[in-house]
Each structure stands twice: as C-alpha cells, then as structure tokens.
Amino acid sequence: MSWKNNVHLSAITQALSTFSSATSNMHGWVLRATASEGRQSLMMSKRDNQINVYQDRTVAEESFQVELYVPSADGTQMGTAKGSLDPVANIENQLVTLHQNAQLALNTYFELPDKPDAPYADVQAADPDIVADIDGAHQKLIERVQHHCSTLTGAIVNSAELFINKHSKYMVSSKGIETEQETTDLYFEVAMEKAPGPNDQEVLKYWNFIGLKDADIETKLDSVVRETLLTEKATVPPMRDSAVILVESYAISKIIAALLAQANGSAEYAKGPHFKAGQSICSVEPDSESDRLTVSIDPTVPQMAKTTAFTPDGLAAQGGVIINEGIVATQIIDARMAQYLNTQANNIYGNSVVAIGTASKAELLAQFDEVIEILDFSSLLVNPSTLTWSSEIKLGLLHRKDKPATVLKGGIASGDVKASLASFKFSNETVKRNTSGGYFEAANGYVGPEHMLIWQGISIAGLEEA
What we know:
Elements: H1 7-22, E1 28-45, E2 51-71, E3 77-84, H2 91-102, E4 106-108, H3 128-132, H4 134-149, E5 155-173, E6 178-194, E7 203-209, H5 217-231, E8 245-248, H6 249-262, H7 265-269, E9 295-298, E10 320-324, E11 327-328, H8 335-341, E12 351-354, H9 361-365, E13 370-377, E14 381-382, E15 388-400, E16 406-408, E17 412-416, H10 417-420, E18 424-426, E19 430-435, E20 444-449, E21 451-454, E22 458-461
Parallel strand pairs: 8-13, 12-20
Antiparallel strand pairs: 1-2, 1-5, 2-3, 3-4, 5-6, 6-7, 8-21, 9-10, 9-12, 10-11, 13-15, 14-15, 15-16, 15-17, 17-22, 18-21, 19-20
C-alpha cells in the first residue's frame, strides 16, 4: 500500500509538526504507522483426518504510535514517552498528555539520529506472492493442510489453526528520517492424539514462517505424528549430574539470542553481564574436540523475521561478524548506545547466521556411549544475565550404544551456556527458523545448524537408577 494519501497519517504528521513548533522544550518525535491485513482459519477433523474449516476470519488494523523526546531544563537528561494515537480523536490533546509523561521519564541525554545520506539497501522482507494475493495464498495453504492430513495414519488430527498476515510499515521522524517496508508472516498450529482414541495425552505444536517457500507444512505434520506416537511409550529420564545432550535448532536459536543480548552495547551501559570485543564466550578452556562458535548478523537474508533495510532508529541496517571462532569480534552498537558509551555506532541489526559443523546427526549421536536427544522442551528460557537455562523435557530419546532408543518425557534439563560452548559440535545441515514476534517473544530470524551436541555444563533432574 502507499502511505502518501493516508488521511490519518497526514493528520497526525501535521499535528506533530504544529505541536513541535509551538512547544519550546521539544527535542523531536518519531511516528510509526502499521497497516495489517490477515486471514485466519480454525479447523477441526470429523473422521479419517478429513479437515474442515469451521471458522474463517478476515482481520484488518491500522495503528499509529508516536514517541516524543523532551529534554530536561538543564539539558543533561532526555525524557521520552511512547503511545498509540487515535486519529479520529483530538490529536493535540493526546500529544499534550504524551509530552507531560515524557517529562516524568528521564534518562541520560542523547540526540536523535540524523537522516542517513546513502539510500537504503533493497531487501525482500515479505513474500511477494502473499502481498499480491493474500486470499489465494491462504487458500492454497488450507488445501495443503487438508490434503496431507487425509494421508496421515496412526494419529488423529484434532484441530489446526492457520493465520497469514501482511503488514505495511512506515516511519518518519522530526529529523527527516523516512522509511517504508512490507512484511509477511504465517502461523500454523496443530493438535494430535494417538489413533484410535480417546487418549489422555495430546501433542500441540506451532510454527512461524515468513514466506510460502519455507512453510514446509507437510514435513511439520509428519513430525507431529511421530511425536504423538512416541509420547505414549515415554518414561522419565535418568538422573545425570553431567549429561551429554543433542538439541535442535529451536534451542540453538534461543542460546544465540541470549549471547547476542550480552554482546549488545545496551548490556554494558546497564552495567550488567556483557561481552566486549576480544573476550571469549566460554567460561572454561575449550575442549580440543569442540567446534568454535561463529555468529554473524545479516539483515539481507530474503524473507526472514529480521530482514530489513533499516534499524529501529531508521538508520541503514548493517551486517557483521559478532562472534568469530568463540571470540567476540564486535559489540552491537546503535546510535543511542554510541553516545552513551562514547564510541562509534555500527548499526548492526538483522538475522542471526550461525556457521554449521561438519558432522551429520547420526555421526554426532555416535560420538558418546549415551546421548539424551531432546526433541521438544516444555518452555525453554535462557536467563540473559547468567546465561543459564532449564526446562522440562517434553519429549526426548535416550540413545545408548548397541541398544534401542528409549522414549523420554518429564525430568528437568539444565545448562550453563558459557560452559557448554567449550564442548559442543554442530551438525552439517542448515535450517531456517523464524519467530514473528509478539507479546511473549521478540522477533528472531535464525539461519544455522539443525542439531547441536553438548557434553559439558548439562545436568538432568530425573529418576535415580538402581
């Protein structure tokens, strides 16, 4: 869509300009507008996994968010206040309230960034097929779900949900910065139980995608069938003070996100745990057999959650190597942190790209006599300060040399990221994972290995063996 003729945007922009000129202590403002359009389908299975849509919804939303910047009287602090504006209500009154709130929320003074001289890069953040025909794209996905579910055996598909969205985002600032970008995202959820039913256990899984090509719905449905059938035979894992585990890209992406948070200049400014260039990410000497972690940021990978031409500040987004062979190469510094830390901004922002390993999953599993493969966590949360984590094992497999794998469920796995990164190996498959972002998780794009073998810093709270 084009924002040039949007009546609400024009009214808010004009009101901001007038209010700013008439208010002596205004430093500046930023206006962000989003227009979203979506299709939502809720599905149920009647018999033989024949999936029917029982509810369809079309959603549309237009939102306008303004942030005002008001310096203190002595010029040493900057007050900020952010809020959504109602374009049909009195805009000036809303700006007066925001201005008053800004004077109550003071931080160290900083300048808003100026408009960049160079043009923004051309990136593909959205799937053009969804942008061009969201109804057609949604219907094709529904048909794929219906067709593949009808071929599934051994499990009953109880329900499924499919949401598809396209967004047009616009930003303008008092400093002359102006950006515009289209994005897309998909959400797919399915719940299954073992056939013939009824059962007391149901497996619920969900995924985010950005484009149709990465929406491997058929593969995801097959994996849920496998997990559903495994769950019935599960037992609690054995107690281990020092365990060897194999995790999937979901866990890897969480670990990487936590590491990058400590490599951000904001962590140093907050005087919390943080990484600076030249520091090792490991708390102990790396094992000679271990891989060395290399992580880059890339804002240009097509159709990913953090693919963008510009940073949240509206400056040109840059890529860069953040961790190279286990050593921090670069801190992530935005315009505001550059002023606070008295350094240069690098405006690094985008998707996480992790260098893969050389071994297959089977080769990783064969390296130890006992490996606990965690197929799914109940809720994996990595503490961004301590870089430790813990979660209930929702489903796993205990692999022992020359023995059949045992299905696991329950128990608590815990880990120390900095210790584990001294003793790990990545698999040689490359996968993409996206989190669109929302109330519970920040947007995250991950390109990297599918599996990670860890043999240090891991413990399992489970059953004591006789």
